[in-house]
Batch of 4 targets.
Target 1
Amino acid sequence: MGEGKIGALPLPSLFERARKIHQSVTEAGGGADQDLVKKGYEALEKCEEMISKLGLFSSNETKEDISTATLKYLLVPFYLGELTEKIVQDDRIQILKASQAKLKEFITFCESMELIPEEELEASSQGGSNTFADQRARKIARFKRQRAAESKLLEIKERKERRGRSTKAAALSTPVETGEEDEADDDVEEEREAWLTTLSLAICKALDLLEMLKKEEEMLSAIKERKLKEGDNEFSRDALDDRTKKAEAWHRNAATRVLYTKPVQPITCATFAQDVLEGRANATEAHEHKHQPMIFGPQSLVGGSLTSERERMAAQVFQPGHRLPTMSIEEAGLTEMNIMNNWQERNAKLMEEANSAWYKESWKPGPSKEDDDEDDDAAQDRARAMDDWKDDNPRGAGNKKLTPCG
C-alpha cells in the first residue's frame, strides 16, 4: 500500500487504508500509537467528506436499495467513533462526547436502513429499562448476536479461501469457460453477506461502547464537580491521614494500658453490659440497676459521652416510632419483689390479728331486754289503733256506687 497523500487517493483506496489502520489500532488496544490513530482519524474524516459530496446514501433508502460496493461505507462513522475514543487528551470528557456523537450517528443511520434488530428498537422505544434483569437479558442477546456474526464472518472467509484455492487448481489443470458468470454472482452475494454481517457486528459493538462511554462520562463529570466544590484534594487527604494517625495512637495507647490495668469485676447485669458496650457507662463504675434511656443514631455507633447539644441532637436523629421503656428488666423484677414482700407482710399482720384473744371472745350482737319491752308496747299500740280504725270504717265503706241497690 503506497504512502501517497490522503487527498489524492480515491474513495475505495482511502477507505481500505483507513480500515486497516482501524484494525491495527483495535488489535493494539490501549497501547495504540497516537500518530497512527491520528492518521486513521484524518483518513476517515476525508472518507466522510467524500461520501457526503458524492451523496451515496439517502434517508429514503433501505439496505435492499444500497449496492454491495457501497455498503461498506456505512461503517465510516463507527470507525470514527472507535478511533476518537482511542485519542489521548487532557480533556477526556470532550473526547467521550465526540465519540458518542459519531456512534449515535452510526446507530441512527443503521436504524433508518432497517439494520437494527427488533429487540434493540423495542428497548430504545421504551426508554431503556433500568432493571438488572432487563439489562442482563439485552447484553446476553447482544453477545449472542456478536458471536454469531463473528463465526459467520470466519465461515465466509474460509469458504472464500477454499474457493480461491480450488479455482486456481482448476485453472492450472484445465481451462473452464462455462460457469464463470455463476461464480461471479456467487462472489457478489457472498461479499454482500459479508458486509451485512460486518455491519451487524459493528452495531453490537457500537451499542456496548456507547453504554460504556456514557458511564465513563458520568463518573468523570461527578469527579470534576466534586473537585470544583471541594477545591484541592489535599484537604481530604490530610483529613484521612489525621484520622488514621488518631486511630493508630488510640490502639497503641489501649494496648499499653492493658499491661498495667487491673481486670474489672465481671458484669452480671445485662442492661449494664449493654450500657458499657454502647459507651453510656464505664466497666469500672458501680452499677445500681439505674436504667439509662437507649440512644439510637450516630451516638450508639460512635460511643462516648455527649459533650454538646449539637451532638445530643445528632444522636437522636433516628428514634423508634414506639415509646421507650421507663425501666429495665432488672428494675421491674425488683419492683415486683418489693410488692410481693409488702403483700406478705400485710397478710401476716392480718393473720396475727385474727388469732388474737379479743377476736376469739363469743360476743353476739342483739337488742337488750329493755329494747324488747319497748318494741312490744309500740306493737300493741299499733294493733289497737288498727282495730279502732276498722270499727269506724267497715269493709266496703266508700264504694256505694258499686252496690246494686243504693
Target 2
Amino acid sequence: ILHYRLQSPAFKPWAAPEWRRVLGLEIHPTSGAGWASQAHEQIKADLTLCLTEGQLQGTVNLASLSEMPVVWWGLTLAANQIPPADVAQQILWELFEVNFRYDLLVLDRACY
C-alpha cells in the first residue's frame, strides 16, 4: 500500500507525524472523539483510498495487520525472527531505494 502511495502523484506526501501514525496504526489504536482518533481515522481512510485506487482491495485487511503473514518476494518470513542475511540485505536495499525515491519526489514537489 505504502509503495503504491509513494509512487502515485495523486497523493500528497506525508510528514513525519503522519508516518508515525501509519507505522503504529494497529499498535496504538485510538478510540473516542479526540484529535488523535480523528487523525487515526484519516490515515485509515487514506490507506483505504490507496487500496481502492491501486486496485488492491481484498489484499490487505487494515483491521488485522499484525495477523497477516510477512512475505518477501514469495518467501514467507517469521514475524518474530530476523530474516536470513541475504533477505535482510534485500529488504534494506529496497527501503533505501524507496526512501531515495521519496526524497526526490518531495524535492520535486517542493521545487515545482
Target 3
Amino acid sequence: MTANESCQEFITWFLKNGGTVDLSAMGITDFPSSEGGRGAVALKEIPEGHVLFSIPRNLTLSTRTSSFPSVFGLEAWKKLKLHEGWSGLILSMIWEAIQGSNSRWAEYLNILPTSFDTPMFWDEKDLSELLGTSIIEKLGKDQAEHDFETKVKPAIESRPDLFPAEHSSYYSLLTYHVMGSRILSRSFGVEKWQSDADDDHDHEGNKSIGSSMDVDEQHPTGSEAQDDNDNAEEDDDEDDEDGHDSSDTAMVPMADMLNARYGTENAKLFHEKDALKMITTKPIKCGEQIWNTYGDLPNSELLRRYGHVDILPLPNGQNGNPGDVVEIRADAVVNAIGEAHPNLTTESITERIDWWLEEGGDDTFEFDLELDYPEAVLSIVRLFLLSEPEFEKAQTKGKPPKPKADGEVLPILQKVIQGKLKEYPTSIEEDETLLQTEPLSVNLRHSVVVRLGEKKILTAISAKLDADLRQHAIGNQNKRKSDRQPEVKSHKKSKR
C-alpha cells in the first residue's frame, strides 16, 4: 500500500469513527523535509477561529481508552508499575499493533512513522558530534531500556496468550524505542474532563508539560493560547511531584499530522467535554502550511524529540533558531568557584549547595540570544562568595543573595562560559566551514547546527562579560583616584 493510500484509508477511518474534517479547507500533503515533510495545507483562505477538525475523546489512544490494561489485568498492571511513565502506553500500542485490522486504531497505527532521525537511534560516532550539548544527557536511553527490561519484557513474557510467539518481532527493544519515539514526538496531554461547570468553555489542548488553559470563547478569535505540545519525558511517573497522570498522555489522530516551526503557529488544539478541536488562531492563506506549535523549542530539543532543526533569520542578521538556549549545570558553576576560591572547604560547598536546592534554587541555568545573565546563576555565585556569618544570615532570612553582576561575580561567570565552550569538539569557524561542505549526513548537519547555535550564544555572552569587566575596572580605577584626592579646604572666612 502506498503512503497516499494509507493516508486516504486513515481519513476514511477517522470520519467513520466520529471525527470531522473540513476537507474543503484543509488537505494532507508532502512538504519538503525542510518544511516538516507530510503536513496539513490550506486549500482556500481560512479565517481565524475556524474549526479545521474535531476528534472524539474516545478516538484518542491512551491507557485510558485502550482496552488492553483491563485485558491484561489491573492488579498485574500495577504490580509491574505499568501505570508509571510511558511503559504502559507503549505496551498498549504494541498490543494494539499485533491485533492488526482487529484493533480500533489499525488505520491510524499504519500511518505512524516506523523510523526516526532522532539521536535515540544514532550510533556512538554520530552521538560524539553532540558533545557539549545537553542532548546526550537528556536522551534517557538507559532509563528507557531499564523500563523495557523490568516492566515491558516481563509483562510480555507473563502473558503468552496476549503476546503470541508468532508476533515476536513486535517485542524487541527496537520496537519499544520506536513506540516511545512516536509518543515523544506526537503525543498530547488529554486530561479527564473535570466537571460540567466549564461546559461552555473550551480548554486548549495541552501539548506541553503543564495544565491546559481556559479559553473564554468557543472559537478563540484574538485569544492568546498557551503552548500545546505535550511531550513528557519517558520517565514521568503517575505520582510524580507535579501530579502528572500518565494516562493523560495520548496519541491524537489527525492532530499529530500538523507540523510545527518556531513562531509560525496558526492553529491550536482545544478541549471540549466530548471532543478535541483544532482551531485556527490567525487567518491562513490558500496554499500555506497549517502549523501547530511545539512551544518554540531550541534546536537541541527539536532534534532530540523530533529529529529536525529550525534555521530562520535572526535579529542579528545571522541564521539560526531564535529559541536556542545553552544549558549549564550548577556543578560547572561550583567547579569554577572552587578553582577561583580554593580556600572554600568541601563541607562549606556541600552545605551551601544543599541549602540552595532546599530553597528551590535551579540546578541548571539557561543562556539565550537575549544575552542576559540568568538571575539564578548570579545569585548562586554570590552565595558561594558569602562569608560564614553572611551565609548564616541568608539561612535565617531564607533568601538567597540578590542577583548582582559585580566585579566578584563576573570573573567566575566568565570562567564558567569558557569552560563550557571547551566541551564542544569543534570551533565556530570549523562548524561554519563544515556547513558549507557537501555532502554532509543528515545527523552530522543537525549536530553542527545545534552546537554552532549554542557556541554563538556562549561567545556573545563571553564578549559581553569582557565589556562589563572592563567597565567595572574603569569604575574601580576612577573610584580609587577619587579616594586619593586630598580634601580641598575653603580659605574663606565664615560670616558672623
Target 4
Amino acid sequence: MGQKINPLGFRLGTTQGHHSIWFAQPKNYSEGLEEDQKIRNYIKNYVQKNMRISSGIEGIARIEIQKRIDLIQIIIYMGFPKLLIERRPRGIEELQINLQKELNCVNRKLNIAITKIAKPYGNSNILAEFIAGQLKIEFHFTK
C-alpha cells in the first residue's frame, strides 16, 4: 500500500504557488489562518448571494491573500468577472467595506483585485461548479 500525498503540497514551488503569502510568529499563526478562512468564506458567500446565474456557477477559481503589516491584498481569480461587475457596479467597493467591518481591521488597509482566467472551463473548481449546477437543474445528459 502506497503513501498518499496531498497534490497541492507536492506541487508547491514547482508548478503552483501558495494561496496565502504572509508571515506570523508561532503563537499568532492560528489567528492568521482563521482570518484567511473568514476572508475566503465571506467572499464566496458574497459572490454566491450577488451573482445568480441559471447554471449556478460562481466562477471563483481561487482566492489569493497577501498580508503585510499595514495592508491585506486579496486577489480573486474568476472565470466570469463581468457577471459580478455588471450586476452591481459598486460591488467590489461594497465587498471591501463590508469585509473590513467583518475583520475589524482599522489600522490595516484592504485592497481587493479581480483577475480574469483565460480558460475558465479549464479550471477544475469552475468545471466542478458547472457540473454540479447542471445536476441540480436536472440536465439530461443521456439521449
